[in-house]
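ARCHIVE CARD
Drawer: 12
Card no.: 0347
Subject: one protein chain, sequence and derived structure
Cross-reference: see card 0346
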Amino acid sequence: MSAVGEFRYSHPSISLRWAGATHPGLRRTVNEDSVFASFPVFVVADGMGGHAAGDVASTLAVEAFRSLRGRTLADVARVESALERAFDSMREHARAAQLGGSTLSGAVLVDVGGIAHWLILNIGDSRTYLYERGELQQVTVDHSMVQELVEAGALRSSDARTHPHRNVITRALGAGRRQSADVWLRPAERGQRMLVCSDGLTGEVEDGEIAEILDDVSSPAPAAALLLRRALDAGAPDNVSVVVVDVDAVELADEDLFDTHAQKLDDTLPREARP
């Protein structure tokens, strides 16, 4: 598997390192996942539809957030506008050709009263986790049939990963009725590690193992590479995408800043990494 690159960037309010990887899996010829990882945006989309251009749908989903990329924090209104663009772009393309839907999950750093916060968003069953103080928390809630069964008490959480309808989602970006995304706002804190992933990872690697890797591997690039490798070793019938983001510092003094002019900002990931 090709090496995973690692990036870093410092803003006066926050310093980050991050890395990401995506792979078509071991049974697919097309990677319908798309990843956009560039300060201050870190999102993963999982396209659906197979021949109905799921790869196009996921690309449209993440491309709607490209305008947020830059040297400044975003704001909540701009993130909301990006979500609207994602919906509108899919609707427009669906008029001209058959188009599948897409999940979307991730986090955008936004300015709230001069303090960096994570605006975490989700629609579908891709996930965003937060690992801090030795604990892994799934921030997002899957929009899926099995999640509804779990919440209704009709299915145990431990059985959800093997349920025959585990891939049936109840909400997505697409050309049909507009469905809302869930959002959460969390302060960014030193030592946090964010994981954004498609269900190609969580379908093969349990949360306990994910937590162990995030705890044991100190840098984002090797952590992302190992998570991807564990999914592939487990068989990975689906596309797999992961983004790992570390918060190294918050509210930095000027003398502690990296040389931002030397940082590489054009850091979106290739569509796939080959074994």
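Annotation on reverse: The first helix runs from residue 54 to 63. The longest strand covers residues 240-250.
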